[in-house]
Amino acid sequence: MLYSPFLPEIGSGAIRRLKCTSRLEDLQSADVIIEAIVESEDVKKKLFSDLDRISKGSAILASNTSSISITRLASATGRPNKVIGMHFMNPPPIMKLVEIVRGADTSDETFMTIKALAERFGKEVICSEDYPGFIVNRILMPMINEAFFTLYTGVATKEDIDSGMKLGTNHPMGPLELADFIGLDVCLSIMKVLYVGLGDNKYWPCPLLVQYVDAGRLGRKRGIGVYTYDKLVEAKLSSRI
Ligand SMILES: NC(=O)c1ccc[n+]([C@@H]2O[C@H](COP(=O)([O-])OP(=O)(O)OC[C@H]3O[C@@H](n4cnc5c(N)ncnc54)[C@H](O)[C@@H]3O)[C@@H](O)[C@H]2O)c1
After folding, report:
1. Is residue 36 within 6 Å of ligand 1 at its C-beta?
2. What residue spans define the domains of the chain?
3. 179: closest CA among 200, 198, 152?
4. Which of 20, 38, 47, 51 is the pocket-test mutation for ligand 1 (most atoms within 8 Å of CB)?
5. Do residues 102 and 109 touch, judged by C-beta distance below 8 A?
6. What class has domain 136-240?
7. Is there a catalytic annotation at residue 171?
8. Please, which contacts does 204-209 make with residues 24 or more away whose CB atoms are closer than 8 Å?
9. Residues 45-82: pLDDT tens digits?
10. What is the four-CA torsion angle of 160, 187, 63, 94, rounded to 10 degrees?
11. Is 56 helix (H, G, I), strand (E, B) or coil?
């Protein structure tokens, strides 16, 4: 059963009020905008610049980025005090954590507003300074990358690597299975941010991870990554989430 802090009627009421649009202009009156597009600094900066022009001056612009500098995203706007990282763990309906990231100029008011909003969503909040990968991916992604090196250098099969970490360290998913769940392209983008931003060879992305992404093996969303997936089963699983 999925965790929900809300009564079912509140949840269904909220879903009825949801509006979908592909026009940025429809965000004109929003108080808070949470961006969750592709993990690319250039693409996000362009969107933040457009959102800065379109949204009202008092609106907070939050990013769900897993690793990219909030300070640099904020620099694409004229309101760096109202730009903040609001990193939901995947899948958001199940995972309790939101990692809040303050850029160099994020104001206390913006931080308090976003923290209160996350808590209203029923989330637990942690706060990170604005350094590559923040807290969670600074620690998680090198482990996933090392799992790829373990596979790449023939130390063990993918199944044994995942079983080892599940049964040996009590992780709910093995690192390769988790990488497929996150998306191998997203994992590679985060490793590149760590490698460039922290300037240490220990963050060098594993060539096997790079090759899988080059081949379009992006994980569960593509039906193939480290493992292959049955499209029908995946569709049923995601509709339950
Ligand atoms: N995958 C995860 O487990 C996970 C977890 C937490 C946070 N995030 C973050 O959430 C964001 C999205 O992750 P994802 O896994 O959905 O990535 P994804 O690459 O699978 O999907 C990104 C989506 O953004 C769309 N997009 C690209 N450019 C756009 C634009 N200019 N305007 C509107 N839409 C655009 C793409 O068409 C695509 O549908 C990233 O910043 C990622 O780091 C991902």
Report:
1. yes
2. 8-129, 136-240
3. 152
4. 38
5. no
6. mainly alpha
7. no
8. 205/145, 206/145, 206/148, 206/149, 206/152, 207/152, 208/148, 208/149, 208/151, 208/152, 209/145, 209/148, 209/179, 209/184
9. 999 999 999 999 999 999 999 999 999 999 999 999 99
10. -20
11. coil
Q: Residue 1: what pLDDT?
A: 39
Q: Determine which residue's CA is closest to atom 43 belonging to ligand 1.
A: 66
d(CA 15, CA 25): 22
Q: For 121-159, b where at least 16 C-beta lie within 10 A, e where not — what string? A: eebebeebebebbbbbbbebbbebbebbebbeeeeeebe
Q: Are 237 and 87 in contact (CB under 8 A)?
A: no
Question: Tens of pLDDT along 153-210?
Answer: 999 999 999 999 999 999 999 999 999 999 999 999 999 999 999 999 999 999 999 9
Reported as type and span, the H/E element at residue 194 is helix 184-198
Token digits for 171?
């992780």
Encoded tokens for 154:
């023939």
Structural fold of domain 8-129: Rossmann fold (3.40.50)
Contact 130, 71 (CB under 8 A): yes
Q: Find out whether the beta carbon of 186 lies less than 6 Å from any atom of ligand 1.
A: yes
Measured distance CA(35)–CA(53) in Å, rounded: 15
- Arithmetic mean of pLDDT over the chain: 94
Q: How many CB atoms lie within 10 A of CB 95?
A: 13
Grouping H, G, I as helix, E, B as strand and the rest as coil, residue 48 is: helix
130 to 123, 190, 191, 210: CA distances (angstroms): 21, 14, 16, 26
* Residue % of the chain over a pLDDT of 70: 93
Rounded-to-integer distance, Cα 112 and Cα 86, Å: 12
